[in-house]
């Protein structure tokens, strides 16, 4: 078996859990995660760990928040007027809600509190500030014939 190197395409089983054991992500062999090693489209520590692994090999990694979804940023907790929300949508504490901006961008936030006039939203990613335990298993490796320069 050949070792994985930068530029190779790999198919993976991937399981992500919080330190509490709560499952955040899991796939199966029918729906493998596919990535190009070193492409920078997945967590850098995972891409680095894949280097020199072989088909069938498994590794478990602990990702600190900065290596995963980033720190929880208090400035991303915002208070907005209730009037900006569609009145047909049921608003509940803990619900995730999409916010469209005038520039055409959309953001997702979690409702933290509500009163008659306003809603407090946490615009951080749900996993921001969390340490993740990632288990990867290499299902297949497609070697690159011309590695990136």
Q: Can you walk me through this structure?
A:
By secondary structure, the chain is mainly β. It has one helix spanning 44-50, and strands at 9-18, 23-26, 33-36, 58-63, 77-81, 96-100, 106-114, 118-122, 132-142. Strand 6 and strand 7 form a beta hairpin. The chain starts with 8 loop residues before the first strand and ends in a 7-residue tail after the last strand. The model has no long low-confidence stretch (mean pLDDT 92).
Q: What's this, in brief?
A:
This protein has 149 residues and is mainly β. The protein has one helix and nine strands.
Q: Kindly provide the radius of gyration, computed on alpha-carbon positions and rounded to a whole number of angstroms.
A: 20 Å
Oligomeric organization of the protein chains: single chain
Number of helices: 1
Summarize the main sheet: 5 strands, antiparallel
CATH third-level topology of the largest domain: Chitinase A, domain 3
End-to-end distance: 24 Å
In terms of per-residue confidence, which ranges show pLDDT below 50 for 5 or more consecutive residues? none
**How many β-strand runs?**
9
Order of helices and strands: EEEHEEEEEE
**Class of the largest domain, according to the CATH hierarchy?**
Alpha Beta
Strand content: 35-45%
Annotate the secondary structure layout.
Layout: E1 9-18, E2 23-26, E3 33-36, H1 44-50, E4 58-63, E5 77-81, E6 96-100, E7 106-114, E8 118-122, E9 132-142
Antiparallel strand pairs: 1-2, 1-3, 1-9, 4-9, 5-8, 6-7, 7-8
């Amino acid at each position: 078996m050949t070792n994985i190197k930068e530029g190779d395409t790999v198919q993976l089983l991937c399981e992500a859990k919080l330190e509490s054991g709560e499952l955040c992500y899991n796939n199966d062999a029918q729906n493998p995660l596919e990535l190009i090693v070193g492409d920078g489209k997945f967590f850098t520590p995972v891409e680095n760990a894949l280097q020199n692994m072989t088909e069938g090999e498994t590794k478990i990694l602990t990702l600190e928040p900065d290596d995963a979804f980033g720190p929880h940023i208090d400035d991303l907790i915002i208070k907005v007027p209730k009037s900006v929300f569609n009145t047909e949508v049921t608003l509940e504490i803990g619900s995730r809600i999409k916010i469209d901006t005038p520039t055409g961008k959309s953001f997702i936030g979690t409702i933290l509190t509500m009163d008659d006039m306003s809603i407090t939203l946490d615009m951080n990613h749900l996993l921001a500030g969390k340490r993740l335990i990632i288990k990867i298993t290499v299902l297949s490796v497609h070697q690159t014939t011309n590695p990136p320069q």
